[in-house]
Amino acid sequence: MTTTDLSRNVLPDDNEIAVAVESSRTLAAFLSTAAHTQRIELLNDANQRQVVEVPTFALRLFGEILSELALGNAVKVVPIHAELTTQEAADLLNVSRPHLVKLLDEGLMPHTKTGRHRRVKFADLVAYKNKRDAISRAAMDELAAQAQDLRMGYE
């Protein structure tokens, strides 16, 4: 069973943000291809070159990471099969740990138990979050439509 440390948050500094802005733009220009792999060239401090073949999907993911860093956001990469503690899962959902445990006990999200400790798969957490977000969006759309029907000034 794999657990992932989600407690480490590092925000990019101003220089890193500026570099991320420029590099994400440059990278985006090269990723409009149907090729499955891309060759990139890396230079070390001594200007020694190394060509690396990378899946295009991985470079697109790297581009998304750079875009988030360009906005000043911290980024974490979590393997989809990772198992999270209840505290880590609660933090990602932005709810309290007791509330998350209640969701687990009600069967609203799958989990496993290792002794007395519950573990939540990251994939299950994402599926629950996506479902919850879709329900919230539908409710907001309904409220907005209702407000327009009642001419409440949101036209």
Task: Give a description of the structure.
This is Helix-turn-helix domain-containing protein. By secondary structure, the chain is α+β, with helices and mostly antiparallel strands. The chain has 2 domains: 57 residues, no CATH class; 67 residues, Multidrug-efflux Transporter Regulator, Chain: A, Domain 2. The chain has a 3-stranded antiparallel β-sheet. Strands 1-2 form a two-stranded antiparallel sheet. A hairpin with a 5-residue loop joins β1 and β2.
**Assigned CATH architecture of the largest domain:** Orthogonal Bundle
Strand order, main sheet: write it out: 3-5-4
> Nearest-angstrom radius of gyration?
21 Å
The main pleated sheet reads as:
3 strands, antiparallel
Q: Topology, pairings included?
A:
Elements (H helix, E strand, L loop, with lengths): L13 H17 L6 E7 L5 E7 H15 L12 E3 H8 L3 H9 L6 E3 L2 E5 H28 L6
Antiparallel strand pairs: 1-2, 3-5, 4-5
In summary, what is this structure?
The chain is built from five helices and five strands, in the order H-E-E-H-E-H-H-E-E-H. It is α+β, with helices and mostly antiparallel strands and 155 residues long.
